[in-house]
Amino acid sequence: MINLDGQNGSAAETAFASMLALGADHGLTVAIKDCLDVAGHTTRCGSAAYADAAPALSNSAVVDRLLDAGCRIVGKTRLHEIAYGMTGVNAFEGTPVNPRWPDRIPGGSSSGSAVAVAAGSVDFAIGTDTGGSVRQPAICCGVIGFKPTFGRVDRRGAMPAASSLDCIGPLARSMDMIERAMEIIAPDYRVEMLTSTPRMALLVTDETDDPEMLEAHEALSLAGMVARRVHLADLDAAFRAGMAIIARETLDANRSRLEAGAPFGMDIRLRLEGARAISDAVLAAAEDIRVAFTQSVDDCLSEFDVIVTPALPQAPPLLSEAADPAKVLPLTRYLRPFNLSGHPAIVLPVVTSTGLPSGIQLIARKGADARLCAVARWLCDHHPMFSDLRGES
């Protein structure tokens, strides 16, 4: 029996907001983030503000895809409240325990999905990624996280219902399972095989980054796998633009409940109230940055198969540091900009020389999701740092 109080029991037990038994008895086991509708169940979004909402009348599109493919959905996973935060700390439902680094944050907002995969509770899990919310918890917990091209996976039945940033994507322990998951949730996805060595560009990093977090990034250069180092001049502006857009869109999605006095956690309430200050002019400027940054990424990818970045610029903070903005806000420096641009991105985890969670991110052309996975698989085959990620042991 899984203990659902969120404070005791194993890390695997703390991943789940509720248990389900949907689908085939012997299919691939899957956990889904509790911002995705399941017919007959309340979509709580990790928040007291949604705990008394009416049960969903129908499944989200991704849940139907999973069930049609013969998967067994075993539970809905906890998340950072209303999928609006990067630590995974949740005072209402309880914070999932990072299985490998229990003193550190599990990451967010798809915290429970990452924990369920890292703990071995499921074959793969489904999360959502609006500003790194699949990729960041994946690295925090030491698993693979994939954000498909924006719009590649049907978002019907996801919360928020409208978003220009959010993508549904899988988390798994191996590239084999990531690709199997994508074949299920994206009906036009077909696995690709590389016929030549991929051309990889290494993003020039920021001098404030923690050198230990750059070990895997630099290892590719030392191994002669990188064609060239590149700059993306608008990266920091894209980060800020993504922050502005997510704030405004999250406020719009939750405005009626906020104004009705729904019991959001204090940190979320303050962030929603703060989002009122984002004017139409600020939003328009952010959209201009979206256009410019997207073009700069497209231009770079016209010469390369992938751009390689660090996954995180600094180590995931300790749970005791989770309330410190200086420890949390920079975590998505290299992740959030590619929600703004809509390019597919995948993170491969590694452990640093002192045992901390870290990794790299690969970005590919829009629509080249299968090619991106093929490059990630090629890295697993050709660099010992990633060899454990090729297939299930």
Task: Tell me what the structure shows.
- The chain has 393 residues and is α/β, with parallel strands linked by helices.
- The protein folds into two domains: 12-185, Amidase signature (AS) enzymes (Alpha-Beta Complex); 200-389, Amidase signature (AS) enzymes, CATH 3.90.1300.
- The protein is built from twelve helices and eleven strands.
- The protein has helices spanning 11-14, 61-68, 111-118, 135-141, 175-185, 215-222, 235-259, 266-274, 280-301, 325-328, 337-341, 369-382; strands spanning 16-23, 29-33, 72-77, 124-129, 144-147, 167-172, 200-203, 228-230, 306-310, 345-351, 357-363.
- An eleven-stranded mixed β-sheet has the order 1-3-2-4-6-5-10-11-9-7-8, with helices on both faces.
- α6 links the parallel β7 (200-203) and β8 (228-230).
- α3 (111-118) packs parallel to α4 (135-141).
- The chain starts with 10 loop residues before the first helix and ends in an 11-residue tail after the last helix.
- InterPro entries: Amidase, Amidase_CS, Amidase_dom, AS_sf.
- Hydrolyzes indole-3-acetamide (IAM) into indole-3-acetic acid (IAA).
- Pfam families: Amidase.
